[in-house]
Design brief:
The chain has 261 residues and is α/β, with parallel strands linked by helices. The chain is built from 9 helices and 13 strands. It has a domain of 156 residues: NAD(P)-binding Rossmann-like Domain (Rossmann fold, 3-Layer(aba) Sandwich). The model has no long low-confidence stretch (mean pLDDT 96). Bound molecules: NADP nicotinamide-adenine-dinucleotide phosphate.
């Protein structure tokens, strides 16, 4: 039996796409999450909490590689600190973190926590890799759906996303987990940088809904300034995926036959 790769958050949106890729590469996988999951040959689940620091030592037994995907709206800095310390104690040889594009530039708590998480991983003493990813289509969808069905489409000036396909993030993470520690690697993002008008137009077209007239709105404060400056967007050295927002919407309508409309 090979040492299992530990995937924290392996039951989540990204994690459940990464785990089969690791399994197909012949790796045993152990998944850590708060709620656990069903075991199958080569795949075991352990319950623990990265923020509370519960169950980490047990999850890390006989593990060389850790892919840290567990995350939430709050506490990602604490979670990464706890995991980094436990991984160091356990003698882990490679610790991989998914972070977010704009971690060090966006003045919003979620991004700041990701920047702190990156520092915790880099300072852990464990050889490491950090991948910053742009928002997934699945994250952008509810935002756009909510806006696109209002009587007037709010158009926050300067707000843009470069959403990407979950399978492309998963493939890159699996590649990194199967490779050597690489430090901070190139950010990954979707093929297009789209504003709210473009995102909403593609959404209403795919869903067969009516296009709404837009009304300009202004995101206030430091967050607004940062979004207008594009601080949430990847830089020139980004690695871009190929699967677009329109591709995602087409997949969605095909797979749900309208259930999610
Ligand atoms: N989605 C995006 O657009 C995006 C973009 C860039 C980066 N990221 C980052 O990528 C990571 C994964 O995102 P995702 O969209 O797959 O998230 P998700 O669907 O919400 O899944 C989160 C996973 O983490 C587990 N988890 C959450 N809190 C935990 C805790 N305290 N202890 C142990 N397990 C915990 C969850 O399982 P339980 O609830 O059972 O614990 C679940 O398996 C996150 O760190 C996120 O910030 C996401």
């Amino acid at each position: 039996m090979t040492a299992p790769i530990l995937v924290t958050g392996g039951t989540g949106t990204i994690g459940r796409r990464v785990v089969p890729l690791l399994r197909n590469a012949g790796q045993d996988v152990r998944v850590l999450s708060r709620r656990g999951g069903l075991d199958e040959p080569g795949l075991t689940h352990v319950e623990g909490d990265t923020v509370a620091g519960r169950g980490l030592a047990e999850a890390l037994e006989h593990v060389d590689v850790v892919l840290h995907l567990a995350g939430g709206a709050k506490g990602d800095d604490t979670a990464a600190g706890n995991l980094a310390a436990a991984a160091h104690d356990a003698g882990v040889r490679h610790l991989i973190l998914i972070s977010v594009v704009g971690a060090d530039t966006m003045p919003i708590g979620y991004f700041r926590a990701k920047a702190d998480a990156e520092r915790a991983i880099a300072g852990s003493g464990v050889p490491w890799t950090v991948l910053r990813a742009a928002q997934l289509h699945e994250f952008v969808l509810p935002v756009v759906r909510g806006m696109a069905t209002l009587p007037l489409l709010p158009l926050p000036g300067g707000l843009r996303f470069e959403p990407m396909h979950v399978d492309e993030v998963a493939a890159r993470l699996a590649e990194l987990a199967l490779g050597s520690p690489s430090g901070r690697v190139a950010d990954i993002a979707g093929p297009d940088v789209l504003d709210v008008r473009q995102l909403a137009d593609a959404y209403v077209e795919a869903m067969g809904k009516r296009r709404r007239r837009g009304v300009p709105v202004r995101i206030p404060g430091a967050a607004g300034r940062a979004y207008r400056a594009g601080d949430n967007l990847a830089g020139a050295s980004v690695q871009r995926g190929e699967r677009s927002w329109s591709d995602f919407l087409a997949e969605l309508t095909a797979s749900t036959a309208g259930v999610l409309r």
